[in-house]
Amino acid sequence: MNIKTNLTSIILCSGMLFTSLAQAGNSHHSGKHYLLTGHAAAKLSLTDEQQTKIADILSEKRSQMKAVKAMRSDNKHAFKNIVESDTFDEQQAKETITQMQTVKAQMLLAKLKSKQQIWYLLDEQQREKWAHMQNKRMRRN
C-alpha cells in the first residue's frame, strides 16, 4: 500500500473513533427520573420539599417494582418450563397466565399510585406545566 492510502485509512478511523466518543459523552440520560433532574425542577419551579417528597415517592415505587419484577422473572421461568416440557399442561399454563396478569396489574397499580401522589404534591401552575410537558412529549413520540 502506498502512504496516501494508509493516511486516508488512519484519518477515517480516527474520525470514527472521535465521533463515537463524542456521542457516548453526550447522553442526556443520567439514570434519574425526569422529575429528579435540575431541568424539571427549574421548569416546574419545584421547592426543595417537593423534590424530597418526589424522591421518596419514586424510591418507594422503585422498591415495589423490584419485588414485582422478581415475581415476573419467576413467571417467565414457568413459561419456559411449560414450553420445554414433554407434554402441555393447560392448567399450569392458565395458572401462570393468571399470575402474570396479577403481576402486570401490580406494576400498573404502583405506577399509577406514584403518579397520583406526585400530582397531589404539585400546585395548580405546576400541574398545568407538567400536563403541557407531558402532552408535548406524547406528540413527539
From TrEMBL:
GO terms for cellular component: outer membrane-bounded periplasmic space. The lineage of its organism: Bacteria, Pseudomonadati, Pseudomonadota, Gammaproteobacteria, Alteromonadales. It comes from the Bacteria. It is found in: Periplasm. Gene3D superfamilies: 1.20.120.1490. Keywords: Periplasm, Signal. This is Periplasmic heavy metal sensor. Coiled coil: none annotated. Transmembrane segments: none annotated. One of its GO terms (molecular function) is unfolded protein binding. The keyword Signal applies. Residues 1-24 form the signal peptide. Belongs to the CpxP/Spy family.
